[in-house]
């Protein structure tokens, strides 16, 4: 049943907020969010927010754990707030610059101007990330969400 984590999570004991955008899987729209960071591991970050965060590709305004991007892989209500887990993506410097340029001034809740190319770049990075971790998928249990 439970998954063996590839790396240990570390609780973030001081309140730290993070501005990020999410390219939603549903409509490929850009959504701005400011979230609180809850825990950090080598592979990802746990976040908490006052509102639900849609699944999609995440782009951090400032680096988090040395990363600019990730994939929101799970989310759910946790008491009065919402929690979610973001899996970091391994992006080349060229990929980061490209995505930064394409996402530089998106309008909230508007489709991106070049979503196919952005998503293709992010999907390629996701495949590299999976290969580097030597895993094909990762299963999140209810215990992981706490």
Write the layout of secondary structure elements.
Layout: E1 10-11, E2 17-24, E3 30-40, E4 44-49, E5 56-64, E6 67-78, E7 81-88, H1 93-102, H2 115-133
Antiparallel strand pairs: 1-3, 2-3, 2-5, 3-4, 4-7, 5-6, 6-7
What's this entry about, in short?
With 146 residues, the chain is an alpha+beta fold. The chain is built from 2 helices and 7 strands, in the order βββββββαα.
How would you portray this structure in words?
The chain is built from two helices and seven strands. With 146 residues, the chain is of the alpha+beta class. It has a single domain, classed as Thrombin, subunit H, CATH 2.40.10. The protein has a six-stranded antiparallel barrel. Strand 6 and strand 7 form a beta hairpin. The longest helix is centred in the C-terminal third of the chain and has 19 residues, at 115-133. Residues 134-146 have low confidence and may be disordered.
């Amino acid at each position: 049943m439970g998954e063996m984590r590839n790396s240990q999570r570390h609780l973030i004991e001081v309140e730290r907020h993070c501005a990020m955008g999410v390219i939603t899987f549903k409509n490929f729209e850009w959504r701005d969010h400011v979230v609180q960071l809850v825990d950090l591991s080598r592979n990802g970050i746990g976040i908490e927010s006052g509102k639900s965060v849609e699944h999609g590709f995440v782009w951090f305004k400032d680096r988090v754990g040395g990363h600019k991007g990730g994939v929101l892989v799970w989310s759910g209500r946790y008491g009065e707030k919402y929690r979610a887990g973001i899996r970091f993506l391994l992006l080349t410097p060229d990929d980061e610059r490209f995505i930064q340029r394409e996402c530089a001034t998106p309008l909230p809740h508007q489709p991106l101007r070049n979503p196919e190319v952005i998503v293709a770049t992010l999907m390629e990075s996701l495949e590299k990330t999976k290969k580097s971790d030597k895993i094909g998928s990762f299963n999140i249990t209810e215990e992981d969400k706490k």
